[in-house]
Amino acid sequence: MNVKKLAELSILTGIALIIFVVELQIPNPFPIPGIKLGLANIITVYALYHYRAKEVMTMVFIRIFLASVLGGNMMAFIYSFFGSVFCLTGMLLLKRFIDEKHLWIASVFGAVLHNMGQITAAIFIMGTGVIVYLPFLLVSGCIAGAFTGWIAQIAVHRIKGNDAKQK
Amino acid sequence: MKRGILTVILFCFIVSCAACADDNGNTLDEATSEFFAMNTYISVTVYGKDADNTVKSARDRITELERLWSVTDENSEIYAVNHSDGKMITVSEDTAELIAFALRMAERTNGALEPTIYPVLRAWGFTTGENRVPQESEIKELLNMVGYDKVRQNGNEIQILNNMMLDLGAVGKGYAGDEIAELLKENGITSALIDLGGNIQLLGTKPDGSNWRIGLKDPEGAGNVGILSVSDCAIVTSGNYERYFTASDGTVYGHIIDPVTGYPVNNDLLSVTVIAKEGKICDALSTSLFVMGVQKAEAHWRQYQDFDMILITKSGEIHITEGIKDNFSLDVNHGNMKVGVIEV
Amino acid sequence: MKNKVLIGICIAIFLIGVIGSALVLFAPHGTKVNIVQDGAVLYTFDLSVTEDQTLEIEYNGRTNIVQIENGKIRVVEADCPDKTCIRMGWLETGSLPIVCLPNHLSIEFADEREDLDAVIK
Ligand SMILES: [Zn+2]
């Protein structure tokens, strides 16, 4: 990994963390655990199409660890970890079928898989009763995933535009 | 676009089919038989193929065992042993096995389980219901006829001293439960609940795969202390709250006799519940642990650890062994009871 | 083409989610409630006959205070960072439990069919 890449990944991780902290300040209208916009996902989706799998994974795991520390909720780490493992595995596979112009589709799958990972962790920790949350998480995953994916798509478009101008 | 919509419909269809498949699975027969045997009310509920016939053979088997072990039935093998005038008696395989087990458990519990306590029990009137408080000298006299170490067993041959009496009541129901569970299993039954007057024997899980939910009766008041959620095991509770009488001076005497003193047990325990694979272990241990009291009972568990138990003390505490604590939930109306976990 | 199939699957997941949510929200429920911690049932009781009271449930030094009032149940105080459990309010909608993920706590309606199978005496 060269220095330039390392710097880029660090900046991306930093941005993701800032987005995470900003999102923490937005009151969540849904009193259901696990439901949130997950804006930091924008960075993951973007990174997925511009860096190697190993690099993205390192970035994501560092981010969720730091985010748990910043949020003061270490339990969240376990849920995010399971969610991220599911999400990354799925997206890395889907990346082959989905081109960058349809980032939002990949993002929807990513978000839904993330929620499924969280539910899996919750079932291990809390018992099977929590499975009733799954439908709510599916709905919120689809909406949040499409939204964050759409923003990532715009971002990619802009960045490409800038690159083209610079050249 | 048409293709896309088609895919959606197909996908929904597959998912809904997968969801229904559960309900249309092959249904199991259910059969229940309720009857009176071994001095208690017995109920056997069986799920599986040919449940009706299996339940009938279970009932036959219990009646057969009862005929062998009744203390009062003149045709029983135990009656023959108890009226042998000290002669050697040959008994059936079932009886020999049960006596051997009772003697083994008596040894394991240092005589807290005493299969020859019957004469003392009779003196207190617990065998007939005509309760009385015997004289101290009478109890002393009777205790001379008590002692599991005086029973001679050589295979199917049993010999006890003249005037001694064998009573397998404390292990018979548990043994019968094990026999029934075995019989059901041989007949291909994978799910059954056998209730021998409050001694519970569970075969497998409920037909839907979930644990059986068994209430633990409050020894002092109405309702349940809590609920056990378990499968494939036996559960037996002993306590002096089941059968007791109040003497003219107001003293309460329970039906479990301390074999050392010859008096009904009066210690720090209200009840002992034992959970183990085998009903006969549960039956034997629940009685003997009750005789031992809290400290010795916990020491016994630490030494053997081949069972789980729930002790309810007179001071309103529940002591539960670590292996079963996650299967027990306290009833909220008994929230004032302190629950402590017994660890190794 | 490939994208259309994938979009179709997205829509299907979304619809399943919506239908599932509706089923959960409108599911009938009884009055029996379990308080579950780490998958083990701590308390079980019938709200219709339980007196008003507050229960303190501890997990690793943190507590949730659960209130039962007029046959309803909710979390009134909690030491958790997110307070989602408190914001969920009274337990009322179908089979959706009140959960406190940080404290491993879940308060849920028990299956009515799950009555006792037997009583040990
Ligand atoms: Zn909480």
Could you outline the blueprint of secondary structure elements for this entry?
The complex is a heterotrimer of chains A (167), B (344) and C (121).
Chain A: H1 3-25, H2 41-48, H3 53-71, H4 74-94, H5 103-126, H6 134-166
Helix pairs in contact in A: 1-2, 1-3, 2-5, 2-6, 3-4, 4-5, 5-6
Chain B: H1 2-21, E1 29-37, E2 40-48, H2 51-69, H3 77-82, E3 89-90, H4 93-108, H5 118-123, H6 136-143, E4 152-154, E5 157-159, H7 169-186, E6 191-196, E7 199-203, E8 212-217, E9 224-230, E10 234-239, E11 244-246, E12 252-254, E13 269-276, H8 279-292, H9 294-304, E14 308-313, E15 317-321, E16 328-331, E17 338-342
Helix pairs in contact in B: 2-7, 4-8, 7-8, 8-9
Chain C: H1 2-26, E1 32-37, E2 40-46, E3 53-59, E4 62-69, E5 72-78, H2 84-87, E6 98-100, E7 105-109, E8 118-120
Antiparallel strand pairs in C: 1-2, 1-7, 3-4, 4-5, 6-7
Structural class of chain C: alpha+beta
End-to-end distance of chain C: 67 Å
CATH class of one domain in chain C: Mainly Beta
Which ions and ligands are bound to the chains?
zinc ion
Major β-sheet profile of chain C: 4 strands, antiparallel
Poorly predicted runs of chain A: none
Q: How would you describe the oligomerization state of the chains in this entry?
A: heterotrimer
Helices of chain C, by number, come to 2
Main beta-sheet strand count, sense and barrel state of chain A? none
CATH architecture of chain A: Orthogonal Bundle
Strand percent estimate of chain C = 35-45%
Strand percent estimate of chain A: under 5%
List keywords for this structure.
heterotrimer; B: 344 residues; alpha+beta; T-fold; 3 domains; 9-stranded mixed sheet; 3-stranded antiparallel sheet; 9 helices; 26% strand; C: 121 residues; mini-chromosome maintenance (MCM) complex, domain 2; 2 helices; 8 strands; binds zinc ion
